């Protein structure tokens, strides 16, 4: 992966090649998004937006041929976050920008993505129907499983795009640090923190959406994405402080991907850290001092 980052930063043509090639693939658009973010953070928003302009064409072709707006949404969302990071030099603010990115993705999908939403809803309906039939064939009591609505699906897609945009941004940030400031990304990520006012605003927004009904729960997930990544940063800081191995992190991330309760616990830890400031009390390398890795040409 570091070799790919070096190739991207070798010149404009190389960066353009990676950005365009990845954008035209449903499987590798995340590489294109991370490459554009790396250029935007290193060489400035203008260079990143120039790459995005060209990458939009293959992503739009994917949208026209398959109806999948995922690659296009990911490219735009990641670029927005990278520009915010370049201008603000603040990782917490850049991750916070995933909230409007996710909400905008969901709203635009709801307004313009009718065929895509219909396909996803039909897929879930077919899948849940087969589950009900299998349960009935096994002699189990069957109750109708709830079907997601277009509003729920739009929220899910918005949450997924917000999440993946942050992941691609962090990948690009790791590339940048590996090339120009070794070790800087780890310090920055372990220090990812939101003050009480910001954490409370995200919590209240999520609770308000949850209170509006089941259909709005995926939208509440979008609002808590920054707290999710702040909680992951806290976990990494704790593992480093305790001197634990990577095996613990691997096991945790497997549980995090599989169980919603683990995700909620991570958000809860980030909320607690906002008031209790555990990392600041530890006094290790999780503070925000030192080189921020935003070296420029």
Written overview of the protein:
This protein has 297 residues and is mainly α. It is 79% helix and 0% strand. It has 2 domains: 1-111 and 152-182, Orthogonal Bundle (Arp2/3 complex 21 kDa subunit ARPC3), CATH 1.10.1760; 183-286, no CATH class. The relative contact order is 0.11. The longest helix has 31 residues, at 150-180. The chain has helices spanning 2-8, 12-23, 29-43, 45-66, 70-88, 91-96, 98-112, 114-137, 150-180, 184-190, 196-211, 217-242, 246-258, 260-276, 278-282. It is built from 15 helices and no strands. Mean pLDDT is 88; it is low at 286-297.
Secondary structure elements and their pairing?
Layout: H1 2-8, H2 12-23, H3 29-43, H4 45-66, H5 70-88, H6 91-96, H7 98-112, H8 114-137, H9 150-180, H10 184-190, H11 196-211, H12 217-242, H13 246-258, H14 260-276, H15 278-282
In short:
This protein is an all-alpha fold and 297 residues long. The chain contains 15 helices and no strands.
**Rg, nearest Å:** 20 Å
Which structural class best describes the helix and strand composition? mainly alpha
Number of helices: 15
- Overall CATH architecture of the largest domain: Orthogonal Bundle
Key structural traits:
79% helix, 297 residues, Arp2/3 complex 21 kDa subunit ARPC3, single chain, mainly alpha
